[in-house]
Amino acid sequence: MKRRTMAVTAIALAVLALAACSARINSVTINRETGTRRWQVDNIFLANDIRVMDVQEEVKDGVLFVNVLLKNGWHMPIGGKLKVLFYDEGGVQLDDPWGWRQVNLESRQEEWFRFMAPKPSEQVERLKIMIRGINKPGS
User: Fold this and answer.
1) pTM of the model
2) Read out DSSP for 86-97?
3) Which residues form the domain of 94?
4) Which of 32, 57, 50, 66 is nearest to 110 (CA)?
5) Number of domains into which the chain is organized
6) What is the CATH number of the domain that holds 91?
7) CB 135 within 8 A of CB 97
8) Which end of the chain is more exposed for a tag (fewer CB within 10 A), N or C?
9) CA atoms of 39 and 100, how far apart (whole Å)
10) The pLDDT value given to residue 20
């Protein structure tokens, strides 16, 4: 009986831990002036599954484009969401007209995702790339 209670408790704790992790976000903040990158890992499982491999900036006619290379580090297809936030010189977040973008990656697949800043390049000081949740591809 004691063994069964311990097993049920362990399963309940595992389910709670997974539920808590699924709501958390991993992100990288990039200061464009200094080139520094600061990683925030809230969900270690997600950090190992969907990885930010590279971030490239491109300016065309004063418009900033940000290209983000993601990789599925898992052996099965997975999905999630990706978002890029842009901040001005004062640290104020610029309007986000794009929202979260659905990401579906096959096993070990790498894919580039492109975002456009809502203001001219010279008005963007910092950006934050966020990855949220793992779910079934297409969900």
Assistant:
1) 0.75
2) EE-TTSPBPP-S
3) 2-135
4) 50
5) 1
6) 2.60.40.3230
7) no
8) N
9) 19
10) 42
More confident residue, 89 or 11: 89
DSSP of the chain, one letter per residue?
A: -HHHHHHHHHHHHHHHHHHHHHT-EEEEEEETTT--EEEEES-HHHHHHEEEEEEEEEEETTEEEEEEEEEE-SSS-EEEEEEEEEE-TTSPBPP-SS--EEEEE-TT-EEEEEEEEEEEGGG--EEEEEEEEEE-TT-
d(CA 108, CA 76): 8
**Tens-digit pLDDT profile for residues 75-134:** 889 888 999 999 999 999 999 888 999 999 999 999 999 999 999 999 999 999 998 866
Tokens linked to 89: 């010189």
